[in-house]
Amino acid sequence: MTKTALSGVTRVFSPQLAIVVNILLSAVIGYLVVKLALSWLDEPTTMIPKGLPKSSAQSPVATKPTELTAEAITGLFGLSATTVAPTMTGTPPDTPLNLKLYGVYFNSENPDLSYAMIATPDKGGKTLHYKVGQTLPAGVTLHQVHAKYVILMRNGRYETLRLINSTADNKLLAPVNQTNNLSNSISPPPLPISVDSNSTGVTADNNSTNTLTPEKLLGNYQQQLKTNPAALMRLAKAIPAYDNGQFIGVRLKPSSDASVFEKFGLQTDDILTEINGTVLDSPLTGLSLMQQLASANQIAVKVLRNGQPVSLSFNVDPQ
Q: A cellular component term (GO) from this record (predicted)?
Protein backbone atom coordinates (compact mmCIF):
# COMPACT_ATOMS: atom_id res chain seq x y z
CA MET A 1 0.00 0.00 0.00
CA THR A 2 2.79 2.35 0.89
CA LYS A 3 4.76 1.72 -2.28
CA THR A 4 1.70 2.16 -4.34
CA ALA A 5 1.05 5.58 -2.76
CA LEU A 6 4.62 6.81 -3.27
CA SER A 7 4.70 5.74 -6.87
CA GLY A 8 1.50 7.64 -7.46
CA VAL A 9 2.87 10.77 -5.87
CA THR A 10 6.06 10.47 -7.96
CA ARG A 11 4.10 10.18 -11.15
CA VAL A 12 2.07 13.27 -10.24
CA PHE A 13 4.99 15.64 -9.27
CA SER A 14 7.82 14.49 -11.55
CA PRO A 15 6.90 16.64 -14.58
CA GLN A 16 6.41 19.73 -12.43
CA LEU A 17 9.68 19.17 -10.55
CA ALA A 18 11.58 18.80 -13.80
CA ILE A 19 10.31 22.14 -15.02
CA VAL A 20 11.40 23.93 -11.82
CA VAL A 21 14.86 22.37 -11.91
CA ASN A 22 15.34 23.39 -15.54
CA ILE A 23 14.39 26.97 -14.80
CA LEU A 24 16.85 27.18 -11.90
CA LEU A 25 19.67 25.69 -13.95
CA SER A 26 18.99 28.09 -16.82
CA ALA A 27 19.12 31.05 -14.47
CA VAL A 28 22.41 29.94 -12.95
CA ILE A 29 24.01 29.30 -16.34
CA GLY A 30 22.79 32.64 -17.68
CA TYR A 31 24.22 34.49 -14.67
CA LEU A 32 27.61 32.86 -15.16
CA VAL A 33 27.68 33.69 -18.87
CA VAL A 34 26.85 37.36 -18.26
CA LYS A 35 29.47 37.63 -15.54
CA LEU A 36 32.11 36.11 -17.77
CA ALA A 37 31.25 38.47 -20.61
CA LEU A 38 31.48 41.51 -18.34
CA SER A 39 34.89 40.43 -17.08
CA TRP A 40 36.13 40.29 -20.67
CA LEU A 41 34.89 43.81 -21.40
CA ASP A 42 36.57 45.28 -18.29
CA GLU A 43 40.02 43.92 -19.21
CA PRO A 44 42.04 46.08 -21.74
CA THR A 45 42.92 44.29 -24.92
CA THR A 46 46.66 43.94 -25.44
CA MET A 47 48.05 43.12 -28.85
CA ILE A 48 51.10 40.88 -28.59
CA PRO A 49 53.33 40.97 -31.66
CA LYS A 50 54.28 37.67 -33.15
CA GLY A 51 57.62 36.27 -32.11
CA LEU A 52 57.54 37.89 -28.67
CA PRO A 53 56.90 35.91 -25.54
CA LYS A 54 53.82 36.71 -23.60
CA SER A 55 55.89 37.93 -20.67
CA SER A 56 57.15 40.86 -22.76
CA ALA A 57 53.67 42.31 -23.24
CA GLN A 58 52.81 45.02 -20.80
CA SER A 59 49.56 46.79 -20.09
CA PRO A 60 49.42 50.27 -21.65
CA VAL A 61 50.15 53.10 -19.23
CA ALA A 62 47.68 56.02 -19.29
CA THR A 63 49.50 59.27 -20.07
CA LYS A 64 48.23 62.83 -19.60
CA PRO A 65 47.72 64.64 -22.92
CA THR A 66 50.44 67.22 -23.62
CA GLU A 67 49.16 70.76 -23.13
CA LEU A 68 49.32 72.80 -26.33
CA THR A 69 51.18 76.00 -25.43
CA ALA A 70 52.40 78.97 -27.42
CA GLU A 71 55.97 77.78 -26.94
CA ALA A 72 55.10 74.36 -28.36
CA ILE A 73 53.34 75.82 -31.40
CA THR A 74 56.09 78.28 -32.26
CA GLY A 75 58.73 75.67 -31.58
CA LEU A 76 57.32 73.55 -34.38
CA PHE A 77 58.26 76.26 -36.85
CA GLY A 78 61.61 77.18 -35.35
CA LEU A 79 60.24 80.39 -33.84
CA SER A 80 60.44 81.81 -30.34
CA ALA A 81 57.31 82.55 -28.32
CA THR A 82 58.81 85.77 -27.01
CA THR A 83 60.30 88.60 -29.00
CA VAL A 84 63.78 89.51 -27.85
CA ALA A 85 64.76 93.17 -28.33
CA PRO A 86 67.96 93.65 -30.30
CA THR A 87 71.08 94.45 -28.32
CA MET A 88 72.15 98.09 -28.49
CA THR A 89 75.89 98.76 -28.45
CA GLY A 90 76.90 102.40 -28.38
CA THR A 91 74.82 105.21 -29.84
CA PRO A 92 72.73 104.07 -32.83
CA PRO A 93 72.96 105.90 -36.18
CA ASP A 94 70.89 109.03 -36.72
CA THR A 95 67.38 108.44 -38.02
CA PRO A 96 66.65 109.40 -41.64
CA LEU A 97 63.06 110.32 -40.71
CA ASN A 98 61.94 113.93 -40.94
CA LEU A 99 61.40 114.34 -37.20
CA LYS A 100 62.41 117.28 -35.02
CA LEU A 101 63.26 116.95 -31.35
CA TYR A 102 62.56 120.29 -29.66
CA GLY A 103 62.95 119.32 -26.03
CA VAL A 104 63.30 116.51 -23.53
CA TYR A 105 62.65 115.92 -19.86
CA PHE A 106 65.31 113.48 -18.70
CA ASN A 107 64.86 111.63 -15.41
CA SER A 108 67.67 109.13 -14.82
CA GLU A 109 66.22 107.94 -11.51
CA ASN A 110 62.89 106.97 -13.06
CA PRO A 111 63.23 106.69 -16.86
CA ASP A 112 59.49 106.05 -17.21
CA LEU A 113 58.89 109.70 -16.27
CA SER A 114 61.08 110.97 -19.10
CA TYR A 115 59.42 112.39 -22.18
CA ALA A 116 60.30 114.08 -25.46
CA MET A 117 58.81 116.95 -27.48
CA ILE A 118 58.83 115.80 -31.10
CA ALA A 119 57.36 117.37 -34.25
CA THR A 120 56.29 115.08 -37.12
CA PRO A 121 55.45 116.05 -40.74
CA ASP A 122 52.06 114.33 -40.72
CA LYS A 123 51.00 116.61 -37.86
CA GLY A 124 51.95 119.73 -39.80
CA GLY A 125 55.14 120.19 -37.80
CA LYS A 126 53.17 120.47 -34.57
CA THR A 127 55.13 119.54 -31.45
CA LEU A 128 53.64 116.72 -29.40
CA HIS A 129 54.80 115.11 -26.18
CA TYR A 130 55.67 111.44 -26.03
CA LYS A 131 56.51 109.24 -23.08
CA VAL A 132 58.89 106.28 -23.20
CA GLY A 133 57.14 103.38 -24.90
CA GLN A 134 54.68 105.49 -26.88
CA THR A 135 54.38 105.20 -30.65
CA LEU A 136 54.85 108.26 -32.84
CA PRO A 137 52.64 108.90 -35.88
CA ALA A 138 55.59 107.93 -38.07
CA GLY A 139 55.26 104.35 -36.80
CA VAL A 140 58.34 104.40 -34.58
CA THR A 141 58.47 103.87 -30.83
CA LEU A 142 60.20 106.13 -28.33
CA HIS A 143 62.59 103.67 -26.71
CA GLN A 144 64.84 105.85 -24.50
CA VAL A 145 65.25 109.50 -23.54
CA HIS A 146 68.73 110.92 -22.92
CA ALA A 147 70.04 114.37 -22.07
CA LYS A 148 70.41 115.62 -25.65
CA TYR A 149 68.91 112.91 -27.81
CA VAL A 150 66.36 110.11 -27.86
CA ILE A 151 66.54 106.53 -29.10
CA LEU A 152 63.81 105.38 -31.48
CA MET A 153 62.85 101.84 -32.45
CA ARG A 154 61.92 101.41 -36.13
CA ASN A 155 61.48 98.11 -37.91
CA GLY A 156 63.43 96.29 -35.21
CA ARG A 157 66.37 98.70 -35.35
CA TYR A 158 67.50 101.50 -33.06
CA GLU A 159 67.94 105.03 -34.39
CA THR A 160 69.01 108.30 -32.78
CA LEU A 161 67.05 111.56 -32.94
CA ARG A 162 69.01 114.55 -31.64
CA LEU A 163 67.84 117.87 -30.28
CA ILE A 164 67.65 120.78 -32.66
CA ASN A 165 71.14 122.31 -33.16
CA SER A 166 72.67 119.43 -31.21
CA THR A 167 75.57 117.46 -32.66
CA ALA A 168 77.07 114.09 -31.90
CA ASP A 169 80.13 115.83 -30.45
CA ASN A 170 78.17 117.63 -27.72
CA LYS A 171 79.07 116.44 -24.27
CA LEU A 172 76.16 114.90 -22.40
CA LEU A 173 75.38 116.49 -19.08
CA ALA A 174 74.34 114.18 -16.28
CA PRO A 175 71.46 115.23 -14.02
CA VAL A 176 72.42 116.75 -10.69
CA ASN A 177 70.99 115.39 -7.46
CA GLN A 178 69.53 118.15 -5.34
CA THR A 179 69.11 117.50 -1.63
CA ASN A 180 67.50 119.81 0.88
CA ASN A 181 65.30 119.67 3.92
CA LEU A 182 62.14 119.34 1.84
CA SER A 183 62.84 117.11 -1.14
CA ASN A 184 65.17 114.84 -3.01
CA SER A 185 64.88 115.69 -6.66
CA ILE A 186 66.65 115.27 -9.96
CA SER A 187 67.38 118.17 -12.26
CA PRO A 188 66.86 117.66 -15.97
CA PRO A 189 70.03 118.53 -17.90
CA PRO A 190 70.21 121.89 -19.69
CA LEU A 191 68.94 121.78 -23.26
CA PRO A 192 70.66 123.34 -26.26
CA ILE A 193 69.19 126.68 -27.26
CA SER A 194 68.00 127.24 -30.79
CA VAL A 195 66.72 130.76 -31.33
CA ASP A 196 65.96 132.35 -34.67
CA SER A 197 67.72 135.70 -34.94
CA ASN A 198 64.56 137.17 -36.47
CA SER A 199 62.23 135.90 -33.79
CA THR A 200 60.86 138.05 -30.99
CA GLY A 201 61.20 135.32 -28.41
CA VAL A 202 64.09 134.59 -26.13
CA THR A 203 67.25 136.41 -27.20
CA ALA A 204 70.78 136.62 -25.89
CA ASP A 205 70.35 140.30 -25.22
CA ASN A 206 69.34 140.80 -21.61
CA ASN A 207 68.61 144.46 -22.22
CA SER A 208 65.48 143.58 -24.22
CA THR A 209 64.26 141.48 -21.32
CA ASN A 210 64.79 144.32 -18.89
CA THR A 211 62.90 146.84 -20.99
CA LEU A 212 59.80 144.73 -21.71
CA THR A 213 56.85 144.52 -19.32
CA PRO A 214 55.90 141.14 -17.87
CA GLU A 215 52.87 141.10 -20.19
CA LYS A 216 55.05 141.64 -23.27
CA LEU A 217 57.58 139.08 -22.08
CA LEU A 218 54.86 136.47 -21.58
CA GLY A 219 53.61 137.21 -25.08
CA ASN A 220 57.11 136.61 -26.43
CA TYR A 221 57.48 133.40 -24.44
CA GLN A 222 54.06 132.25 -25.60
CA GLN A 223 55.13 132.64 -29.22
CA GLN A 224 58.37 130.81 -28.48
CA LEU A 225 56.37 127.98 -26.91
CA LYS A 226 54.69 127.43 -30.27
CA THR A 227 57.83 127.55 -32.40
CA ASN A 228 60.76 126.38 -30.27
CA PRO A 229 59.84 125.29 -26.73
CA ALA A 230 63.38 124.05 -26.04
CA ALA A 231 64.61 127.65 -26.10
CA LEU A 232 62.50 128.46 -23.05
CA MET A 233 64.62 126.13 -20.96
CA ARG A 234 67.23 128.88 -20.70
CA LEU A 235 64.86 130.96 -18.58
CA ALA A 236 64.92 128.67 -15.56
CA LYS A 237 65.87 125.23 -14.36
CA ALA A 238 62.89 123.08 -13.44
CA ILE A 239 63.59 120.41 -10.82
CA PRO A 240 60.90 117.95 -9.66
CA ALA A 241 60.30 118.45 -5.93
CA TYR A 242 59.20 115.70 -3.55
CA ASP A 243 58.11 115.67 0.07
CA ASN A 244 58.37 112.26 1.75
CA GLY A 245 58.35 110.63 -1.67
CA GLN A 246 55.27 112.53 -2.84
CA PHE A 247 55.59 114.80 -5.87
CA ILE A 248 54.55 118.32 -4.82
CA GLY A 249 55.61 120.50 -7.74
CA VAL A 250 58.55 121.87 -9.67
CA ARG A 251 61.40 123.69 -7.98
CA LEU A 252 62.52 126.76 -9.94
CA LYS A 253 66.07 128.03 -10.17
CA PRO A 254 67.22 130.94 -12.34
CA SER A 255 69.40 130.21 -15.33
CA SER A 256 71.88 132.64 -16.86
CA ASP A 257 69.46 135.57 -16.74
CA ALA A 258 68.32 136.05 -13.14
CA SER A 259 66.41 139.22 -14.09
CA VAL A 260 63.57 137.06 -15.42
CA PHE A 261 62.84 135.89 -11.89
CA GLU A 262 62.81 139.47 -10.62
CA LYS A 263 60.49 140.53 -13.43
CA PHE A 264 57.85 138.00 -12.41
CA GLY A 265 58.33 138.17 -8.66
CA LEU A 266 59.88 134.74 -8.38
CA GLN A 267 62.61 133.68 -6.00
CA THR A 268 65.20 130.92 -6.14
CA ASP A 269 63.83 127.58 -4.88
CA ASP A 270 60.19 128.60 -5.29
CA ILE A 271 58.19 125.41 -5.87
CA LEU A 272 55.61 125.78 -8.61
CA THR A 273 52.53 123.86 -7.45
CA GLU A 274 49.67 125.14 -9.63
CA ILE A 275 49.16 126.76 -13.04
CA ASN A 276 45.81 128.24 -14.07
CA GLY A 277 43.95 126.09 -11.57
CA THR A 278 45.71 122.83 -12.49
CA VAL A 279 47.62 121.27 -9.62
CA LEU A 280 51.00 119.85 -10.60
CA ASP A 281 50.63 116.47 -8.93
CA SER A 282 52.87 114.63 -11.41
CA PRO A 283 55.92 115.50 -13.53
CA LEU A 284 53.78 114.80 -16.59
CA THR A 285 50.87 117.04 -15.60
CA GLY A 286 52.54 120.04 -17.19
CA LEU A 287 52.34 118.35 -20.58
CA SER A 288 48.59 118.85 -20.73
CA LEU A 289 49.07 122.56 -19.98
CA MET A 290 51.29 123.30 -22.99
CA GLN A 291 48.50 123.95 -25.46
CA GLN A 292 46.52 125.89 -22.86
CA LEU A 293 49.45 128.16 -22.04
CA ALA A 294 50.15 128.72 -25.74
CA SER A 295 46.81 130.55 -26.08
CA ALA A 296 46.04 131.78 -22.56
CA ASN A 297 45.30 135.49 -21.99
CA GLN A 298 46.20 135.27 -18.33
CA ILE A 299 48.54 133.07 -16.36
CA ALA A 300 47.97 132.52 -12.65
CA VAL A 301 50.45 130.44 -10.68
CA LYS A 302 50.87 129.31 -7.12
CA VAL A 303 54.28 128.66 -5.61
CA LEU A 304 55.45 127.30 -2.30
CA ARG A 305 58.01 129.70 -0.82
CA ASN A 306 59.70 128.65 2.41
CA GLY A 307 56.71 126.45 3.14
CA GLN A 308 54.18 129.24 2.54
CA PRO A 309 51.86 129.43 -0.52
CA VAL A 310 52.23 132.50 -2.72
CA SER A 311 49.90 133.41 -5.62
CA LEU A 312 51.08 135.27 -8.72
CA SER A 313 49.00 136.39 -11.69
CA PHE A 314 49.93 138.05 -14.99
CA ASN A 315 48.15 139.16 -18.13
CA VAL A 316 49.55 138.07 -21.49
CA ASP A 317 50.10 140.50 -24.35
CA PRO A 318 50.02 138.13 -27.34
CA GLN A 319 52.24 138.74 -30.34
A: plasma membrane
